[in-house]
Amino acid sequence: MLVVSAPDPAGSAGNVYIYAASNLGFTLVQTLGTTENISQFGTGVSISNTGNYLAVSAMYNQETEILPSAGTVLIYKSNVNSEFEYYQTLTNIAPEAFQSFGSKLYFTNDVDTLVVYSANSDSYDNLTFDSDTTTFDLQSTLVRDLNVDCGRVDIYDRYNTSWVVS
How many Å apart are CA 49 and CA 5, to the nearest integer? Predict the structure, then answer.
């Protein structure tokens, strides 16, 4: 199986083309698109090693008016006819405007884990002092360092019938 993404460079909806191997090369068997105007559909794609799941990102899709271009990842599942059907939409657990959620996608070898990279997301680091040997205020003070637009990786696992963030 070969999956080819074709996001629209103008920013509107794109397509994902699925090809099956044949004696003559590859034959187009399915085209995934959207009926809605999902911005940059097909920016990132990943297919599980079993071929049962396909993840497609729309990294500039607008989930709400408050967060323009926050991005989404759409999960498709192969049916009994080996065609992919829409299964679930993933959104970022810490959404931000213009974060490029889903700019890169990767299914791990266990098929139940999807790695989602957000190129422009902020990241937080919890800071420790002196190797965390000094204790004051019963460790109720947390110092966090904000790294703006540095990118972030989120891990989603399949539990029963849903994909959830780990």
Answer: 18
Distance CA 27, CA 21 (A): 6
72 beta partners: 58
pTM for the full predicted model = 0.79
Neighbours of 20 (CB within 10 A): 12
Q: Which of 121, 112, 109 is nearest to 153 (CA)?
A: 121
Give the CA radius of gyration of the chain. 19
| Helical H segments across 48-128, by residue range | none
**Mapping DSSP to helix (H, G, I), strand (E, B) and coil, where does residue 132 land?**
helix
Q: Per-residue pLDDT tens for 3-42?
A: 998 877 666 678 899 999 888 899 999 999 875 666 778 8
